[in-house]
Amino acid sequence: MATPTETKRRPFALGVSYGFSDTRLVFIDAGRYRFRQSAYTLSLVGALERGLVLGAAVGPHMGGRVNGLRGAPADSWEIRPGVVWSLTVARRYFGTKPELPYLLVVGTVSGSSAATQRESDGERVGLHALDVKGDVSVGWTLGDAWSPYVAVRGFGGPVFWRQGDQRVIGGDLYHVSVAAGFNLAIGDRAAIYFDGAFVGMRGLSGGASLRF
Questions:
Q1: Which residues of 125-159 are buried (b: 16+ CB within 10 A; e: fewer)?
Q2: CA–CA separation, 166 vs 133, rounded Å?
Q3: 66 has pLDDT over 70
Q4: Residue 37's beta-bridge partner residues?
Q5: What is the pLDDT of residue 165?
Q6: Taking Cα atoms as reference points, which of 54, 35, 25, 79 lies closest to residue 203?
Q7: How confident is the model over 154-162, as a mean pLDDT?
Q8: 202-211 and 12-27 as β-strands: parallel, antiparallel, unpaired?
Q9: Is 7 helix (H, G, I), strand (E, B) or coil?
Q10: Cys staple from 147: which of 1, 132, 183, 202, with CB 3.0 to 4.6 Å?
């Protein structure tokens, strides 16, 4: 999620973003599954005093695909469209001078609701998830505009699903991911960002924001 800078006092940012994730989930007594899914979000971010940032986002879950892996039925499911949301608090430390790197600490609570449809018999059931994530990023702002970074993230939370007439609860196989990305300021009001997670849970996201 792109955050507003403080070159001018424009404390709010409205943003749009797209994200794709590819992860493994393990369900109690139901095996391991591969989940691939995507979503768009519309976000509002506000910069408070002393570097504190608060944000909220909501948008459509665009669906995806589930495949059974180890200990799971040899079947596939389509993830139907739904909704995603998130609440974020962040704080940036250091980096007030060009020669100093910055440290960004982010905490996020998020959730999603959708449904899955099994290919073998068409059974449709609900799929609901909650997630808590902590993110520590270290980056450098170059030329007052481009800010590349690397990040380590820890996350976890329950996923509620059904297999036949059985309710199952699962969670991430990987609870840590490593990512890299950048923020690029365009003038004093606009910005774009890109983020790629390549270790643990894999994913890509990107978006744009406008400060006001």
A1: eebebebebebebebebeeeeebebebebebeeeb
A2: 28
A3: yes
A4: 21, 64
A5: 85
A6: 35
A7: 96
A8: antiparallel
A9: coil
A10: 183
